[in-house]
Amino acid sequence: MNSFSVKNVNQIFGTGTAKVHVLHDVNFEADPGSLSLIMGPSGSGKSTFLTIAGGLLTPTSGTVKVNGISYNERSKKERDALRLDSIGFVLQEYHLLPYLTIADQFKLVDKVKPNGNLSPDELDDVLETLGIKSLLNKYPAELSGGQQQRVAIARALYPNPAIILADEPTAALDSSRVSVVAALLKNLAVKHNKAVVVVTHDARLIESADHLYEMSDGYLSVKEPVNNY
Amino acid sequence: MFLALKELKKEKIRSGLIVTMIVLIGYLIFILTSLALGLAQQNTDAINSWGGNRIALNSNSNVDMRQSFLTKDEVGTLSNKESLIGETSIVAKAKSHKQLAAVFVGLKSNEFIYKNIDLDSGRNVKDTHEIVADTAFRLEGYKLGSKVKLNDDKQKFTIVGFTKKAKMNVAPVVYGQLDTWQSLRDITGGPIASAIISKDSKYDNIHKGVKTYDKQQVIDKLPGYQAQTTTFIIMIGFLMVISLIIIAVFLYILTMQKLPNYAVLRVQGIPSKVLVMATIAQSFLLVITGLIVATLLTTATALVIPASVPMAFDIPVLGAVGAGLLVMAMIGGLIPIKSVLSVDPVSVIGG
Hints:
Chain A: It comes from Ligilactobacillus pobuzihii. The structure holds two protein chains of two kinds. Chain A is α/β, with parallel strands linked by helices. Helices cover about 30% and strands about 25% of the residues of chain A. In chain A, β1 and β2 form a beta hairpin. The two termini of chain B are about 30 Å apart. By secondary structure, chain B is α+β, with helices and mostly antiparallel strands.
């Protein structure tokens, strides 16, 4: 069974002459252990896809299943719990809580979800890999934009989700960090058997991807092989 | 509570400013309440100390004991639950002492009010030339044995005792004999008292020209009492509402600034309940800190305030006022909750 599947999803905003068909019969699957990259220009529907995939928006038609169960069969509260347990979001804007130290950003997750998070050793590994281990006692305002983004990535990984949805995770990172993050996402997919879905227009991530898709005017198509993109 | 505590710790200046506002409002409310209580007590201490429940007055006195005169026939037969009093305004003066405006209350030595006078020092009145004065006289330098003239009366009265908390209409009370009251009012052989005070809550004098009231009705008609009390209640009420508005505005602004962060937390599946509780806990911590500091300031004020200032620090009343302030602040803290609940996680997806 796929960790994550999207079937015949259509998304229409507005009505009448203001009607905009943003997604057209989108089908997508992500298996554990794979890194899927969805690329496309701004306005192509990538973010809408991610919003629907994360259960934040109910599509006009079609179904999204996580661990075999459709979002339509879950209440809002259950969707919240699902996102907390099974879906890690890495966002373009990192929005760390300004009054929490980096260590406290993880403690907050512990307060809400006491079990199933990364162990201290696993978190240590993630922080070391991202190069932010020495920043635990600092506040977000004391970090550079790139450092904050890496903290946001670590925070998304901390609940140990089965699926990771990333929205332009490397937008604020320099090239050396992009390869580190790409390796980390790939490592999460392969070593930790997670389904990683990255929405981006950063071509530097292509070589890490197992599956490559292109979103264009709301249509999602498969692009193979990866290194020919 | 975790989020609230962390935010207060990090944002010390911002939290300090809000707490300072709450301290000032809380302190002002506590001091105003103490003043209101003090003034109310100085209006009613004497009446309350008598222990009566019902008061019979001349029906044409406009519920004012000083304007009431009762004849022997109007008084009728009294039980041991009733006391007569004769009340009149006086000016007390003595050589090398400040003149004091006071209220003279004449009593009969075989009745319960006389017997219940709570003496601070000295003894009770035994003849017509003796008086027991409120301790306000002592603060002005009068002593046991001081000779005092009352109004233009040529007779001198000796202070034989002092009693605490004997004030009526914010003036100190001077207790003497009922005969002395008649002499001061120049009605010897006429009316025998101003009022009948009864401990019996069902007492009703049915004689013509007499009307019986509950104690509170008489207190409410004391000159200026209602206006004073109402003014303070309105001031305290307004301050409560102002505190609600200030807390609500501060928390609303703080919450609005955090909504993008909250949206990310919502994306990550942090329940709205956690964010709502953080907002409520934050307002609770700010207000409780402010109230604790305000209480300390009020306590310090109580220790240094001169005895002549009419303030009463009644812990149950101040506690109730503090609780009221806390409730108002919590209501203020609920206003931004709607924004927290309606935060749209979708807003942080995409560029």
